Amino acid sequence: MIARNPLDIFTESFSLQTLTILLAEDDHDDILVFKEVISDFQITINLHFAKDGLQTLELLHKLQNVDIVFLDINMPLMNGLECLSEIRKQSLPVSVIMLSTSNSDYHVSQSKILGANGYITKPASLNDFRQAIKDVLTTDWTKEQTDFYANI
């Protein structure tokens, strides 16, 4: 019998976990891809959506117990970097992973400077995206020594 990793979200042993995720994304197709990626995980996910940075902040205050925010950079009204800055100014206790089609050094470094926990470039491959999301969801972001995650 093979021992299972208790943090493997593809196995039943992880299914007792529940995560509340806020996906801030204005592109309907990207939302569908994200939903497809997490559908394979043996974990209960309470998934909420925001279409821009302003709605993201509103939902973070309303929901209060969000574990992680996946924050698109290019959104209307308030972009992801502006939203991230506000999240950190307000000391909201949430892990933030930036999502973007851009892998520019500027966006990655600004995300890190502003306090993001990580950065994912939206990959062309569904399997690559699934692995990146799995990596993020199985990381303990509450540990101060946790490194900045970059999947660029």
Automatic annotation (TrEMBL):
Cell membrane in keyword set: no
Residues carrying 4-aspartylphosphate: 72
Keywords: Phosphoprotein
Residue ranges occupied by any Response regulatory domain in the UniProt entry: 20-137
InterPro entries given in the database record: CheY-like_superfamily, Sig_transdc_resp-reg_receiver, TCS_response_regulator
Species, as recorded: Dyadobacter psychrotolerans
GO biological process per UniProt: phosphorelay signal transduction system
Residue stretches in coiled coil: none
Keyword Phosphoprotein: yes
Gene3D superfamilies referenced in this protein's UniProt entry, alphabetically: 3.40.50.2300
Pfam family, one: Response_reg
UniProt name for this protein: Response regulator
Lineage top rank: taxon: Bacteria
